[in-house]
Amino acid sequence: MKKKQSDIFIGIICVCLIVLTVFAVYNYENTGADSTPETPGFIIHESNEKLSNVYKAYHELLSEAVNEFGFGSRDVDINGNTTLFKGVIYAELIDFNDDRMPELLYIIGRESSFLDVDCFIYGYSEDSIILHGNYTYLSLGLHTSIRIIESRTGTKYLYIGRGMAEHWVETYYSLNNNQWMEVLNRSYMAHHEGWNWFINDINVNKHEYENALEVYFEFIESRRIDKFEDNYETVNNVLKILEEG
Predict the structure, then answer these.
(1) Where are the alpha helices (DSSP H) in 86-232?
(2) Fewer C-beta within 10 Å: the chain N or C terminus?
(3) Helix (H) or strand (E) holding 226
(4) What is the pLDDT of residue 130?
């Protein structure tokens, strides 16, 4: 009985080997011995190599800024208040258009009594660095706010808001087909009869103004990047990522 069971088991193994052999021969004949199948790993390798070149270029760019202006630090104004920021006070890698190729944003503080900062956004295309945006003399002491806005689609926007309580202007920028552009401009202004609300310089009602972010961006969240006392380490962190990349 045991011998019969052993013979059956051996027979099953033989049948399996025959089927596998036939399948291998069929596959060889239909694909061809000289054919080169697609290799996803090679595509990923190319992508990693390009990203490595981008990181190298960004690292050189940010290092030059740090060498020229120094790392972010607080300064003392003429009244002895430690409220001023100078040097490279913020840096971040942000994939604005969700194409898996990040842009480099960094902010430099100027030595002035108005908390002036310069904001730069660089991208990479056709093996060269591109200056997408350069926003200078943003006076945080005069009610300027810098934020990153994220949408449900993954697109991110740079937000710069400026003004006073009676007059506020906010502009949203992002990438479209690798072109940096102003996407939306919102503003409001007080006058003797009430308020005027504007979207892209067109007078709208308050409801349209308040719902513009949802309509234009499918808005998810907003985060401030101008709280520099909490962000000094971002520059070191980004340099380290770029160096290791």
Answers:
(1) 206-210, 212-217
(2) N
(3) none
(4) 92
Q: Please check the confidence at residue 243 and state whether its pLDDT lies above 60.
A: yes
Answer whether residue 105 shows pLDDT above 60: yes
Task: Let me know if 194 is exposed, middle or buried by CB neighbors in 10 A (0-12, 13-18, 19+).
Answer: exposed
Asked if residues 204 and 198 have their Cβ atoms less than 8 Å apart, the reply is yes
Secondary structure of residue 196 in the 3-state scheme? strand
Q: Mean pLDDT across the stretch 221-227? A: 85
Give me the count of residues in the chain: 245
* Residue 135 in tokens: 């926003």
Please say if the pLDDT value at position 59 is more than 90. Answer: yes
Global pTM reads: 0.74
Residue 181 pairs with which residues in a beta bridge? 174
pLDDT at position 197 is 96
- Going from the C-alpha of 221 to that of each of 126, 151, 209, 218, 227, the distances in angstroms are 32, 7, 17, 10, 17
Radius of gyration of the chain (CA): 29
The answer to whether the beta carbons of residues 242 and 62 sit under 8 Å apart is yes
C-alpha pair distances (Å), 45 with each of 92, 102, 110, 241: 24, 17, 41, 18
pLDDT > 50? residue 32: no
